[in-house]
Design goal:
51% of the residues lie in helices and 8% in strands. By secondary structure, it is an alpha/beta fold. The protein folds into 2 domains: 76 residues, Arc Repressor Mutant, subunit A (Orthogonal Bundle); 161 residues, Rossmann fold (3-Layer(aba) Sandwich). Helix 10 links the parallel strand 1 and strand 2. Helix 4 packs across helix 5, helix 5 crosses helix 6 and helix 10 packs parallel to helix 13.
Length: 305
């Protein structure tokens, strides 16, 4: 992302909504959460359509606009349109295309378009300076705990496993044993440690509670989540946004995976011995890998003790 462009969630209207969100009444909070999660689509909706999308009422939408000092919904929508350059996100366009197909076919090209749209949205949502600060915190930390439940557990496991060669200590705490064992593993976290918490909709309450515990113990908290509407944002020192919109699935992990890979690559680049570590890692697994032979049939090297 060009450094001279503001990140999507740092635009005035998005920051205003995010700052006001904790003090809003429940109905108004539902509308605010939708605006934060779907800022591009929200700019195209009428007040009635937004009420339907948020399962509230036009009156609630109007009350939110007044609570945000926009006078009414027309003022809020004008602020959204003024700030946001695109009126409809690529994923919404794809969703509309699929709705018009009698067969409802979803193919590889549609998936690649959806993934590309989320990657582009992640570029708009994240500042390079925040990413760099996150990398610096990861590289300088004594011990990194990685947390994620549900589908995020697999992302957490991947993050921990790929960080291991380039950090002093990286631990996936949300694997075997569920939330009870995760809490047990996190009990020793302290001021010199860092928690990397991953939570995508629908958010796990356990992830939020354990992140709050880590913050109370003085540890740094890095969050990978979908938008400022995420409950992880309030206790995180650094937040990286991974949009999850998908025309068919409940959520997409493409952007979150890209962020994890980017963090690992950047931490590796910070390590002066990264090239040597990478070479040693490759060498250590060479005896288990398939290699080609002159006859083209291939062979598996013998394991060495």
């Amino acid at each position: 992302m060009p450094n001279n462009q503001p990140a999507l969630y740092e635009s005035p209207v998005m920051r205003h909504i995010a700052q006001a969100r904790p003090d809003l009444a429940p109905a108004l909070g539902k509308v605010a959460d939708y605006l934060l999660r779907h800022p591009l689509k929200s700019a195209t909706l009428t007040i009635e359509e937004l009420a339907i999308e948020t399962k509230t009422s036009p009156a609630a939408v109007n009350r939110l606009a007044r609570a945000l000092d926009y006078g009414g919904y027309s003022g809020l929508k004008a602020a959204l349109l003024e700030t946001l350059h695109e009126l409809v996100s690529p994923v919404d366009k794809l969703r509309q295309e699929l709705a018009q197909r009698p067969s409802g076919v979803f193919g590889l090209q549609e998936q690649l378009r959806a993934a590309s749209a989320n990657l582009a949205a992640a570029s708009d949502a994240n500042r390079e300076t925040v990413f760099e600060s996150t990398v610096a915190a990861l590289a300088a930390t004594r011990r990194i705990y990685v947390l994620g439940f549900g589908n995020s557990a697999y992302l957490a496991g991947l993050a921990a496993a790929t960080l291991v060669p380039f950090c002093a200590d990286a631990i996936a705490i949300s694997m075997e044993g569920g939330n009870e064992n995760a809490a047990y593993r996190l009990a020793a976290i302290g001021e010199s440690d860092l928690l990397l918490a991953i939570a995508l909709p629908r958010y796990s309450l356990d992830t939020v509670q354990l992140a709050r515990f880590a913050k109370q113990r003085g540890a740094k908290v890095v969050a990978i989540t979908d938008s400022p509407a995420s409950p992880l944002c309030e206790m995180a020192d650094y937040v990286l946004y991974a949009p999850v919109d998908h025309p068919v699935l409940t959520s997409s992990n493409a952007a979150a995976l890209a962020l994890i890979e980017g963090l690992v690559a950047a931490v590796m680049a910070c390590n002066k011995e990264a090239v040597r570590l990478s070479a040693e890692l490759t060498e250590s697994v060479l005896s288990y890998l398939y290699v080609s032979t002159p006859d083209g049939l291939g062979a598996k090297p013998r394991k060495t003790s």
